[in-house]
């Protein structure tokens, strides 16, 4: 295995807590009541359906930033929240300022010492660059849906990253907190690593609490994954 590619939303960054915090700060600034938890959860619930419209060909290729904004406008209208266009743009930018899970900075640095590390995400390039800079993520490369004009789980995303790395799929591993993402990668011959993020969707989370299949690696966090990979290399 020569490269590890990572899902970002949920696996690397805690999108829910980050969004809620930013909504709470906006609420104080504007002096209005915002249902921060509800807005964060409902915004994320529109994530997959919005991308599926692209995947089915119902709308032309559209980057995630623009899909997020469309979903946000719909939510604000549903909740009767009136914001001007500039503020809507600011709120949409919340996705560019997401905090990493506590294990991520050290875990990524350790993994980077021994292998190529990169994103494999549905986020667009500018979004992922901003997230990386904000969260101080030491990627070697940003692979994202925008490069291939396909959204995961389309095979073009996974195989496209392998192609650009000039590596066969069996030498590239996807690390993700989502079993479905890993299932799509493994079907294409990639290695897989599961990291549970049991509070990604809040205290009532009911999915992706545990590995659902015998993935190549299962670890509690990125630091544990790095230690496991280092041990395996020493044995080899």
Q: What does this protein look like?
A:
The structure is a single chain. The chain has helices spanning about 15-30, 35-45, 45-55, 65-80, 85-90, 105-110, 125-135, 145-150, 155-165, 180-185, 220-235, and strands spanning about 5, 115-120, 140-145, 170-175, 190-195, 215-220. The protein has about 240 residues and is an alpha/beta fold. It folds into two domains: about 5-15 and about 100-235, Rossmann fold (3-Layer(aba) Sandwich); about 15-95, DNA polymerase, domain 1 (Orthogonal Bundle). It has a six-stranded parallel β-sheet, with helices on both faces. Strand 4, helix 10 (about 180-185) and strand 5 (about 190-195) form a beta-alpha-beta unit. The longest helix has 16 residues, at about 15-30.
How is this structure best summarized?
This is 2-haloacid dehalogenase. Helix content is 50%, strand content 11%.
Let me know the average pLDDT: 97
| Rg, alpha carbons | 18 Å
Percent strand equals: 5-15%
Number of strands: 6
Helix coverage percent of residues?
A: 40-55%
Name the shape in a single word. globular
What is the H level of CATH, i.e. the homologous superfamily of the largest domain?
A: HAD superfamily/HAD-like
CATH architecture field of the largest domain: 3-Layer(aba) Sandwich
Structural class: alpha/beta
Gap between N and C termini: 12 Å
CATH class of the largest domain: Alpha Beta
Please, how many helices? Answer: 11
């Amino acid at each position: 295995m020569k490269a590890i590619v990572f899902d970002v939303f949920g696996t690397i960054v805690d999108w829910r807590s980050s969004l809620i915090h930013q909504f709470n700060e906006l609420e104080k600034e504007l002096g209005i009541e915002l249902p921060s938890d509800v807005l964060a959860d409902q915004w994320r619930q529109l994530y997959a359906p919005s991308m599926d419209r692209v995947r089915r060909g119902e709308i032309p290729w559209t980057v995630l930033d623009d899909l997020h904004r469309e979903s946000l406008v719909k939510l604000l209208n549903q909740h009767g929240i009136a914001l001007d266009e500039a503020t809507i743009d600011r709120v949409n930018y919340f996705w560019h300022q997401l905090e990493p899970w506590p294990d991520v900075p050290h875990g990524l640095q350790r993994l980077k010492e021994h292998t190529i590390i990169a994103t494999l995400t549905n986020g667009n390039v500018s979004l992922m660059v901003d997230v990386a800079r904000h969260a101080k993520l030491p990627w070697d490369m940003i692979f994202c849906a925008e490069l291939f004009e396909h959204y995961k789980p389309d095979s073009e995303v996974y195989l496209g990253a392998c192609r650009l790395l000039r590596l066969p799929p069996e030498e590239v591993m996807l690390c993700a907190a989502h079993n479905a993402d890993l299932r799509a990668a493994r079907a294409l011959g990639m290695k897989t690593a599961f990291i549970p993020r049991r509070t990604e969707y809040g205290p009532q989370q009911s999915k992706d609490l545990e590995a659902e299949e015998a993935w190549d690696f299962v670890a509690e966090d990125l630091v544990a994954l790095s230690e496991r990979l280092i041990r395996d290399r020493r044995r080899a």
